[in-house]
Amino acid sequence: MFKQRVITAIALVLGLFGLLFNLNALNFSLAVAPVVLLAGWEWSNLMGLRTKRHRFAFLALLALSLAVACLSLNLFGALNVSLGQTLCLAVSVLWAVIFLWVQGYPSSAILWSPRPILGLLGLVLLSITWVAIVLIIHQPHGPWLLLFAFVVVALADIGGYVAGNLFGKHKLAPRVSPGKTWEGFCGGILLQCILIASMTSFMPEKITTGMLLALVIPVSLYSVLGDLFESMVKRHSGVKDSGNILPGHGGVLDRIDGLIAALPLFILLFLLLSPF
């Protein structure tokens, strides 16, 4: 299982590098859309849609949502960054509400688990994740900036996994995800601090350690929230993994749950803090 997990992870990283550094911003944005649709297919399963007709109907709604976002952002012309920021701000506030739902589970399920609400959440969260990717990749040095965002989320996940397995004793959210611990959470934060310390030596003088902290730590916290939210939805739906398309990892949602929460906040904070 571990070997399979490592092989899949390497394949994903190589694929990501291939797309990031061989496609321009427009083509990369379009190439990501099918991945979002795959995640939407898995979300339809978590919603409890069992017939292909209903699942394809949800997928069609997600495709329509992405198309509307594409046109609204003027993807093929001068990108409407202001609209993208507004959408990312709105969904970042929504994640603050989701945090309360995670804290209040299982009693909070009455608020978010009805199928229409869960479906709307999937459409909004997945669509705005794509919007955030579009905004990031269109920034100067966009591929490197998006890669940096991925690294922040990955380190939160890796730190949580390693520290949790080695030292984990105190449960972080036992009713949502019994495997996650406070020790793992601290391990993820420690890796973020190491990342920041390693970057300060070669960053331009305009980018201070305080700026990196203000960007990385909140994004890392949101990535943990995204992971917990997906775990909560899976637990309520009675499934272990969102899918099985990625050997050793489960589904697409299982790999991007942290990104769904983190990327909108990442681009918001980056544009706010950027000295350029």
Automatic annotation (TrEMBL):
Keywords: Cell membrane, Lipid biosynthesis, Lipid metabolism, Membrane, Nucleotidyltransferase, Phospholipid biosynthesis, Phospholipid metabolism, Transferase, Transmembrane, Transmembrane helix. GO terms for molecular function: phosphatidate cytidylyltransferase activity. GO terms for biological process: CDP-diacylglycerol biosynthetic process. The chain crosses the membrane at residues 55-79, 86-105, 117-137, 144-162, 182-200, 207-225, 256-273. InterPro entries: PC_trans. It is a multi-pass membrane protein. It is found in: Cell membrane. Its EC number is 2.7.7.41. Pathway: Lipid metabolism; Phospholipid metabolism; CDP-diacylglycerol biosynthesis; CDP-diacylglycerol from sn-glycerol 3-phosphate: step 3/3. Belongs to the CDS family. This is Phosphatidate cytidylyltransferase.
